[in-house]
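Fold this: Glutamate-1-semialdehyde 2,1-aminomutase
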Amino acid sequence: HQNRPRSSELYEEALQHIVGGVNSPSRSFKAVGGGAPVFMKRAQGAYFWDVDGNQYVDYLAAYGPIITGHAHPHVTEAITRAAQNGTLYGAPTELEIQLARMLKEAIPSMDKVRFVNSGTEAVMTTIRVARAYTNRTKIIKFAGCYHGHSDLVLVAAGSGPSTLGIPDSAGIPASIAKEVITVPFNDLDSLKLALERWGDDIAAVMVEPIVGNFGMVMPAEGFLEGLCEMTRANGSLVIYDEVISAFRFHYGSTQTFSAFPNQAAIEPDLTALGKVIGGGLPIGAYGGRKHVMEQVAPLGPAYQAGTMAGNPASISAGIACLEVLQGEGVYPRMEELAVRLTAGIEEGAKRYSIPLTINRISGAFSTHFCDHPVTNYEEAQDTNTEAFAQFFRHMLDQGFYLAPSKYEAWFLTTEHTEVDIDRTIEAAHESFRRMAK
Ligand code: PMP
């Protein structure tokens, strides 16, 4: 059992200066029993250490970006080099071309790319571009998908907003919310109805092709194909939000679906990226078909800009991170560890009769405390929130850091080892034992 007095002190102090004590609401422990979140001091590889000296095995990976572990030497060297050469010019660099090339090679639907500073910005801009291109206003999104915190997509939003019980954020004008139509994920019939009803107004259908924000959820066989077909037949654009999914499951995106069983390769019109492509520094990117991207200034009339966009530190970290991920056997190894870990967790849940559904995709997975499958947002909501909170606390007390939300995934990194996995399985069994008592 760990003690965290310094975290508690810092939390009290933080509350006086920072709203809610955290700079992103998903970091708060509100949904897992409240109290002070853990204040971290440093991190290396698959571990971090808090301000009280406790060590944790990290399965958060900062909500995705830290796929090569913390302070990976290759990434750190790239950041150091960039810092020594000046962190921002407000003028273009060769580095940006290099990362754009790497993204295009891995994601062929991106003829043209633009770098921004976050996934939120990337998604927000794809919507603007789609509206400019189609001269239409509305978008369709899927319930429980999270696409960042811009106005239009904070309707029926999974991840943090759902965790905190505010899937429809306050502060979104009704005039804007009415431009979003929400349908259930994996439900082509509902999509069809929405397109029939509002077809002429739909600029785009936005989707996380593999969902990462109400757990990890795979599209049903034929779902993305059907989505794409109907959307295009309607003259609307398909936008893939791959902020989580790109470079998470294999080197590339979900668009090269040969990597996934029973899925067709689909090339969306626009793609939003973030997280992993910045190697742990702030980044986002969007891109797509040349004629669509030519809407963007300075070529076209759709405006998007950024003082920090394409900064050499983020770009260098991103290049270095992708270079590590190009290494031989990197993804199969993460998957192998995830298979071992999920098998061990499932066995523990069974032993102590705790209902648990695990959705695993390559080296990432989600744990749903329920005895039904989780294929859409409704099923992800209909799980035992209290059981997750207990599990989270027991794992934390044994030195294993998960996201403090039942909707978020566990992420393996290149730095986790078999020893970490086996220790985690042991801790999970102990957590279930305590929960069963
Ligand atoms: N889209 C998806 C699918 C995401 O998971 C996230 C972040 N969790 C975002 C967009 C927003 O990215 P950011 O937090 O970098 O703004």
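The CA atoms of residues 95 and 218 lie 34 Å apart. Residues 63, 118-120, 123, 146-148, 159, 208, 212-213, 241, 243-244, 274, 284 surround 4'-deoxy-4'-aminopyridoxal-5'-phosphate (CB under 6 Å).
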